[in-house]
Amino acid sequence: MRLVRVGATHTRGMDLGEECIHGFEVEFCATCSPAPTFEAPVVKKARPASRPTSLRAPAPSRSAQPAVIVGDQRIYHITHIGNLAAIVERGSMLPDHAEQHDEAVGVFSHDGRADREATRVPGRDSSVADHVPFVLTPHASVWESIRAGIEDPRLGDGAAGAAPAAFVILATTVKQAMDAGEPSGIVVTDGYAASALSRFATTHEDAKRMLGSLLSNDDADALQDAEVLVPESYPFAQISLIGVANDKVREQVRQILRGASHPPRVAVYPPWFQPAGERYPV
Asked: pTM of this prediction?
């Protein structure tokens, strides 16, 4: 019996360790250096002899799905590139109400900010606007409205009228957010945080439980409005990746990051910046 290797490709003109167009080392980029796949041999198994079964016998259990490791899950903060220099200079990302004064382009509209300021976090002396907001998917609905040009009352004029490539996506992980959010801890919502229908998880265990439920949900729409809120501020040093739309923006971001003590990797990933009908699987 012989195994046949299929689907293997090679990246020409690049040495191992060299950074590819997507911002990764070539050998670690799933696009430039996809892992080889193999055609598994087909083995016919003898059918076991049939035997009578009791009508009371329990139905065979389905194979268990792998457990979601909540701490490893990426979360995303979307901001205009015009805001990045101030974030790098400060060394931190600020809550909604604080950033509105020095942002070049704010994402939320005046009414959107007012709604977030008026929405109190249950059990805490703070509002949604007192937190740095993250989303659970790079295809969150508020971001989808920007990149598809959809009218959305949550968006400010600058954000609604800007090209998707004018934004950057700052990525970190749930674990890093939980560490940065101490001692009060992060807040997780299962929908848009300023919506009256959204539920809040404000304790460590409740936040982990809600995140596990959202991330294991087969319905992709379950993630599109959910938020992770970090109180007070978020250290820029905890951002591990900045996603950008093209090479031009990547160079702009790299220039801005020259002053950063812990610059994150900058990766070109067009699917994050294309409307839903045009994007590719992530």
From this structure: 0.75
